[in-house]
Structures are given as C-alpha cells and as structure tokens.
C-alpha cells in the first residue's frame, strides 16, 4: 500500500498511461444525513500494546457473528514493521465486540493485508470454513518494489468461527511471480513481480452460475523495476475451485497503475473488479468486468460516478427485501483528501452508481463492507487520521432515501 505522502508527487509526473473511456454519468452531490448510522469503536490506537491499527476487514459467519480483522502495528502507523493480524468478534450485529485475539504473527516482521472469506460449499465442512489470506514481508514496500525483498502469500483456516486456526500455508508459487531464487529456489519467475498485496478487505465466494463456490481474491503487484507514475503496478486476482487445495492466477487487468482492488459477483455469475488508480491520471475508480469470473477481463473503464483520492475501497453484494441484487461500494468521497466516507449502490452491475450517503464527514480512509444477519449493512473503517477503526451499520433504506 502507498503512503499518503506519496500522493502529491503524482501531480508532478507528466508521463501518463492512455486513459480508457469514462462511463458517462451525472455526478450528483452526496446526500448528507442528519441521522448518522449507529457506530462503535472496534480498534483504538494504544490498546493491547499496539501503537496503531490499520487495514480493516470484516466478514459474517454462517451463524451471524461478525468477524473484524485489522493490522495491529506495534510501534506506529507506518506500513512496514512489527505488524500482526488481530481479530474481534461481535455476536449482536456490531453493537458490542468481544476480546481481541492474535491470528497471524510473523515475528518482528510484517503479517498484513487480511482477506477473509467463508467457504460455504465444501461438503467436508457443512458449518463453513473460514479462509484468511494474507501477506508477509521483511522489508518496506519501497525496498520490495526496488527488488531488495519479496512479499509472500499465505492462508490460514478456521472451522470454528475464528476461535482456533490451522497452521499457515504458503501459496506464493501459485499466486505470485517473484524472481528471488536466493530466498527460495522456486521463486525464479521471469515475470519478476515485486510489491504484492491482497485486496485488502474481505475476499469473495461466488454464489451462482457456472463458477459457484469459487474462492476469489482480488490483489495487485508491481513487476520489474519501478516506473514513473507507478506504471509498474497492475491489479490481478487469484482463485480456487477446489476449496483452497490449489489456486490459479487471473490475467493482469490491463491498466498501468492499477493498485488495491475489491471484487463482487455480477448478476451473470461473473466478477467486477473495482480498482484504486495509483497512477493518479484520473482521480476516479477503475472498473474491470469478467464474465468468466477471472479467466479474462473486459477493457477497463473509469467510473466518473466514483471519485477517489487514491485510496482503498470496498465492494459487496446485497439483496434487497424485494429480491433485487445490488452492489454496494464505500470509499472517501474526495479527489484530494482521505475524508467523507461514503457508501453508494448500483443496480446495474457497477455501470452506474447512486449519488451516495455520507457515513462520516471527517478524516476517513480504508473501509470494508459487510451484510449483517439482520439485513443491515455494516462498514468497518479507519477514521480521525488513523487513530481508530470503527464499525457503523444502517439499513439499506438509509442509502435510498
């Protein structure tokens, strides 16, 4: 992930990748509610011996429990250092949260970018099996991007709703393409992927169509030596059709500068990737559709409905009480600052988006969306200059008022 201090440098770079056509929409002002959603702090800087909490991810268990993950950063809010993945669970739709537990630890180095997803189709686990995909690193993103280290990709599983966890499984050779044989002889790919990150935020299991049951993880990487305007970055994905036994890579999404991405299922059983535009040539989200759920991508379009200050966002599937399938998306509603966390909905598989409702008007950054057992929508997000991660929830009708 790229620190906010780098954003200003993007404005000074004249070299820009070709711009795909923007979706033609009317950018209406955001509706600001006088009755904000219910909200509670989940992770607060200084608690449990961590100087900072960042990178929220949240999923709903089959029994309705909400599992909130975050990076617990021991010393400060910097992206690299002694970083663990921690978890808190709510059993009352986000009103209260249980004690914090440690899920992934990589010693004094980095375990981060949590991407949780429940596999609900494995007959061996009728109560569901929780996957937590994550990355480890032993150097800063700058050093990794410059070829001095690599990021590895792992997963853990839990069959009891996050109470206990399996040993970690390294899937780097299946879903990454590093060229670092000195680290591992198997890491000798000519592609030379360097920087690497899962989504971050929840991963996806497809629920219908030809690819039902597919576990799908949005991701991104850099390839080769660093380029200006972050043109060495590309979004991609990886997926499993056999409950995590093996994993396959999707092709890259064809846009120079595509970075942190989030995915949701489309009405035809395919996938939409909603991507952070790290190049900054257009301060809007990038959209890539795949009718084959990751096997190939349609040409990228820029969504003028989704302004973005170069930040992560979250997308999730939702079904209305009338049975209508919609997509929900959250991100900071600004092209200049990480502020004004806003949630929008789309009724046409992401081709157009509502004007949005503002969840919080102040400083806000990374977020992750979830649908609660009671049908309300929850969003776990960073606020107030990364001093805490809070959970807000609201009914779908709040978005449509």
TrEMBL record:
Catalytic activity: Hydrolysis of alpha-(2->3)-, alpha-(2->6)-, alpha-(2->8)- glycosidic linkages of terminal sialic acid residues in oligosaccharides, glycoproteins, glycolipids, colominic acid and synthetic substrates
InterPro entries: Sialidase, Sialidase_fam, Sialidase_sf
Keyword 4Fe-4S in annotation: no
Any Gene Ontology biological process: oligosaccharide catabolic process
Segments forming domain Sialidase: 64-379
Record's signal peptide: 1-21
GO cellular component terms, A-Z: cytoplasm; membrane
E.C. designation(s): 3.2.1.18
CDD domains associated with the record: Sialidase_non-viral
PANTHER family (UniProt xref): EXO-ALPHA-SIALIDASE, SIALIDASE
Pfam families per the UniProt record, alphabetical: BNR_2 (PF13088)
Family per record: Belongs to the glycosyl hydrolase 33 family.
Protein name: exo-alpha-sialidase
Family annotation (Gene3D superfamilies): 2.120.10.10
Listed GO MF terms: exo-alpha-sialidase activity
Keywords of this entry: Signal
